[in-house]
Amino acid sequence: MAVGSLVLVAGVLAACSSDDARPSRDDLAEVIVDESLAGGASSEDLADCMATLFDDSELSDSFLRAMVAKDDDYRPSEKDTAAMASVARESATSCAGDPG
To answer: CA-to-CA distance for 53 and 69, rounded, in angstroms?
Structure first.
């Protein structure tokens, strides 16, 4: 009986999920690789590192949704533009790995 209740709750939560939610790190990593946002590198480790930075950043959910949707018409706010610059700087040092 308890398993049935968990399945029901999971179904209700899935039905209530919103397109307004923050994209998952996996979705972010996928678009980073697809769009060569990792500077042409296709390393999954690099994409995962960058996805973590995007997710942990102050970038708005709408910015990240537009990024995942590859929405060329989306115009970021000044706050998102500044946050993106910060993420870019941090990824260059945090995700670059050992160059030698």
So the answer is: 18
